[in-house]
Design brief:
71 residues, alpha+beta, 2 helices, 62% helix, rod-shaped
Length: 71
């Protein structure tokens, strides 16, 4: 049960935390200022971590259910 809570907490941190950068230009340069942001692990890393988390959650639930049946 503690591992499930830890998994949920890590997911909230990694999926909720975003990183980004801004590039500001002066008016005289004629270029526009831009900002970009994205997930901490990148789009591919976030997707992979999400899939891994689903497998881990399924395994933890399986173990809890199996433990309760065997007692």
């Amino acid at each position: 049960m503690i591992l499930i809570l830890l998994l949920v907490a890590v997911n909230f941190l990694l999926f909720g935390y975003r990183v980004g950068e801004c590039t500001d230009y002066t008016v005289e340069s004629g270029a526009e200022s831009t900002c970009t942001s994205g997930p901490l692990l990148g789009v591919l890393g976030t997707g992979a971590f999400g899939i891994l988390s689903l497998f881990a959650l399924a395994y933890f639930v399986y173990r809890i259910a199996r433990r309760r049946v065997s007692h």
